[in-house]
Specification:
alpha/beta, elongated, 29% strand, 284 residues, Rossmann fold, Alpha-Beta Plaits, 11 helices
Length: 284
């Protein structure tokens, strides 16, 4: 089963839930895998402490125009939906940060004046946690604007012989999050009981409903803020999988790189309840 852990906003405790759930699953199964898909700011390795074995660069293709062959037909500019290639006076310019590497401009050029060259956008590190857990995360290079190609490459590393996989998604509801949760079996949406938390939870719920993936909500720092998140979940018939209290000692453990599952027995029981609910559909 592939389980994505997402949130409408950053700082809600998404990685706390994801790493804790991975620890629980690792105890139950001989083979498990964790993918940190928050490639702009991956931090799950701080808590799971994998032993990294391999580092692989990730590239994408960028069009290069041969001005000696280019006749200025404009076919490339017409097909590009992102304005990544334009014609100004007698020059064809490529804006790499806007390019989505679809290859359309190369295919439609009547003079075959466009080729493609690789550009490194980041890398993937692979390691192990304990004796059986596999850990992978991606790092997007500073200055690179597109996370989706790196996330897509990261997800291509999922092994068919490993059934239990946790994907820690980026915050928000934009393209990198959609790319992460697509193809998963269940999405855990982590939120907080504040106006911002509710607003962004609504967006996240809309996203997973549009994709059509089963989901549930975890309310972190449940004893702050107000009750409107709970009321929203009740009105929308959304299952609340767990409510994790706000504790100073939890923040202290987090700052030391410790998982809450390892530190607090009652939180471990909550995460185990999430695990049972997802895998059996019965008990929270």
């Amino acid at each position: 089963m592939k389980i994505a852990v997402a949130s409408g906003k950053g700082g809600t405790g998404k990685t706390t839930v994801a790493t804790g759930l991975f620890q629980i699953i690792s105890e139950q199964y001989n083979k498990s895998m964790f993918l940190d898909c928050d490639v702009e700011a991956p931090n799950a390795h701080i808590f799971l402490k994998p032993d990294f074995k391999n580092k692989e660069p990730v590239e994408r293709l960028i069009p290069v125009v041969d001005e000696d062959k280019c006749t200025g037909s404009g076919e490339c500019t017409r097909i590009c939906q992102y304005n990544a290639i334009i014609r100004i006076a007698d020059k064809t310019l490529v804006f790499e940060d806007l390019c989505h590497s679809c290859g359309g401009c190369r295919m439609v050029c009547p003079e075959k004046a466009i080729t493609e060259e690789p550009r490194e956008i980041g890398y993937i590190e692979t390691g192990t946690c304990g004796t059986s857990g596999k850990f992978l995360h991606g790092y997007l290079k500073i200055g690179q604007a597109l996370a989706v190609p790196l996330i897509r490459r990261l997800k291509s590393k999922i092994r068919n012989d490993i059934e239990n996989i946790i994907l820690d998604a980026p915050p928000g509801t934009s393209c990198p999050v959609v790319e992460t949760v697509q193809g998963t079996d269940f999405v855990i949406l982590v939120t907080e009981p504040t106006p911002f938390g509710l607003n962004d939870l609504r967006l996240a719920v809309g996203m997973v409903r549009e994709i059509g993936i089963p989901y549930g909500v975890v309310i972190n720092r449940c004893d702050i803020g107000d009750t409107k998140v709970r009321e929203y979940c009740k009105d929308e018939k959304i299952d609340i999988l767990a409510e994790i209290p706000n504790r100073r000692k939890a923040a202290e453990a987090y700052s030391r790189g410790e998982t809450l599952v390892s530190t607090f027995p009652d939180i471990k029981e909550m995460i185990e309840g999430i695990y049972r609910y997802i895998f059996t559909g019965k008990e929270k």
